[in-house]
TrEMBL record:
One of its GO terms (biological process) is mitochondrial translation. GO terms for cellular component: mitochondrion; ribonucleoprotein complex; ribosome. This is Small ribosomal subunit protein mS39. It comes from Culicoides sonorensis. It is found in: Mitochondrion.
Amino acid sequence: MNNLITLRNVQKIQKTIVSSLLKQNVRALSASPATDEEIVIPKRIPRSPTDILKALSATVGRDPTAAHYKYHDDPFLIPASNIGKRSFALAQESGRKAARWIRQQDREWFNHIVCDPQIDAFLPRLVYTEDSKVEEQDLQDLITNVQVSDAILVYNLLQKNGQSISDDTKLKFLQLISYYNGEDTLDEEWLEERWFRQGVKGKERQRKTWKDGDLAESIFNEMENKTSQAYCVMIRGMAKYFQIEKAFALYQEALDKGIELDTATYNSMISVCNYMKDNADLRWDLAQQFLRTMKENNVAPNLGTLNALLKTFSSLGSQKLAKGCTLKTLAEFKNLGIEPSLASWYYVLITFCKERGTVSHVLIDILNEIEGKSFEIQDEKDTFFFVTAMDICRNHLNDKELAKRVDNLLHTGNNYNLIGDSYKESIYYRNYMGLMCLTEALDDFMEFYNRLVPNIYTPEPGIMNEVLKAVERNGAIEHIPLLWSHLVIFDYVTRENMLSLLVQTMINNPPNMEIQYHANLPEQFNNITSEIWEKLNDLSESRPDQFRWAGGLLGDLLLLFCRGGEFEKATLIFQKLNKSENEMIGEPSPASLEAYAKFCIEQKQPSLAINCLQYSIENGYPEGKTIGEELLTTLTLDELQSSKVKRLIGQSVPE
C-alpha cells in the first residue's frame, strides 16, 4: 500500500512538472516573432534495451580487476578457476532453462498477460502434435522464429491434410532446413551455452553431415519450376555440410540449364575447392574456373568471394603458389574497392606463418593496415584473427611489442566482441601471458599479471609453472604468498610439480630481513608450508587409492619447518617419512635430514635425532656419519644412546 501511494505521488509530481514546462514553452513561442524557418525532425535512432547502460558504463571505463557482471559481486561467490567460471555461468543459465521448462510444461498456469501490446517472447511456445490443426501462417511463423523441428512437423501436417502451400513459403522453408540441415539450433537466449560450446564445436573434424535423401532434397525434387533461388539454397546447404559431389552436380546442372546463380553460391563452391581436387595446381585451376564463370555471367564478387579464395589458398599445399596467389588476390580486390575483414587477415596469417615454414613478418604489415580500426562481424572466421595473431606473436615471432599492438587492437572500440568464445579467449591470454612472462621484466610482468588474473583470465598449469619459474629465477619471493593463494583458488594444489617448484623457490631464496618488504615473509612462509602439509594430508585421506606421498616434497617441507622453528610440525613430517618409507615416491634431500637432525640437537631431543640418524644410515645417505659425530660431541647421551650412535656410524663400541 505504501509503495502504491508513493507511486501515485511520483506520478502527480511528474504531471505537474510536464504541465509547467508546456506552459513555459507556450509563453516563449507566443512571445517570439514569427519565422519561416522549417523545423526538421531528426530521424529516429534505433536503440537497444541496454544502450543506456552502455552509455553509463562508458563514462566510468572498464575496471580490469572487476569480475564479469554475470557473477555475484561478492569475493566469496566470484569463481576464480576455469571450471568454477564455467560451472557458475552454466548453472545460472540452467536455472533460466528450468524456469522456461516449467512455464512450457504447465502453460495453463501462466495466462496472466501484464504487457500491452503482447510480447510473444514472454508467452509459452505453442505445442504442435500430429492432431494439431494448422495453416500456412503457422508454418510462416515457425520459419520466422527458426523453430526447425516444429516447422518440419507443421509442413508434414499440411502435406498430409492436402493443404496447399505457396511457392514463396515453400522456398523459405527449404532455406530453413537447408541452412540448419533439418536440426534445431541453440536458442540465441542461451548466451553462456553458446559461449562455452563454440570452442568445442570449432575443434570438431570437418566431415560430411548433410542428410542425404532427407526432406530438403525431397522438397527440391518435387518442385515443378525449380527457380534460381531454389538451386542456390540447395548448393549452399550441401557445400556447407560437405556433400560436395551433389553440390557440384547441382551447380553444373544449373549452368547447363542457364539458371543464374548468386555470388554467395559461387563463394560456397570456391570455399570447398580443396575438397574437390587433390593437387595444388588443380585446386587453383578450379577456383579460377569458378571466377571465370562469375565474370561470364556478370556476377560481381564480394567480401565472401575474397575470403573463400583466401581460405582455399591457405591449404593449397604449395607454399610458393599459396603466397603468390594470396598477394595477387588481395591487390585485385583492393582495386575493386573491397576491403578485407578480419577473416581475410586470418587466412593471410595461416598462409604465411606456417609452423615449419620460414619466419614471416606479415603480421606487422597487417597491423600497420588495420591498427586503430573498429570492426564488426562480417564472416564467421573473423573470430579467429586475434587468437591466431597472438599465437604468432608468441610462437612464430617471439615479439612482445607486437603482442601489445595486437592487444591494443583487440581493446579498440567493440573489437573485443570478436574474441570468439571461451576457448579462444583462454588460448589468446595463454599465449599473451606466456610471451610476457618470458620477455618482460618481472616487476612489469607481475603488474600485467595482476590486471588479468583471476577475473579476466585463469592461467593454465603450464602458464603457472612459467610464472613460478620466473619468480625463482629473479628471487622475487615477495610474490610467493600471492601465487600460493592463486594455486589454492585455481585448485592446483594436487599438482606435485607446482608445489615442488613453489617450495624449492622458498628454500633457495630465504627472506632477507634487511629488506623492508621481506619482514613478514618468514611468518607467511611458515603458514604456506603448514597449509601445503594440511592439504597433502587431506588428499591422502580423501583419495587414498590415487594419492602417493612424494619423498622429495616432504623433505622440502621438513627443511622449511626446520628453518621456521616449527619443531612439532617438522617432527610430524619426519615421522611420516619414517613410517611410510615403502610407500614413498622418491627420497628426501640430504640437506633436509641434516637440518632436522641439527634442529633435534638444538631442542635437546636425542632420541629423535638418533631416529633421524638411523633413517639416514639405512637409506645410504653419506651425511649420516656427520650427523652421528655431531650427536656424540654436542649432546649428553646415556650409555645405550651413545652405543647405538657409534654402531650406526661404524665406530667401535667397548664391551
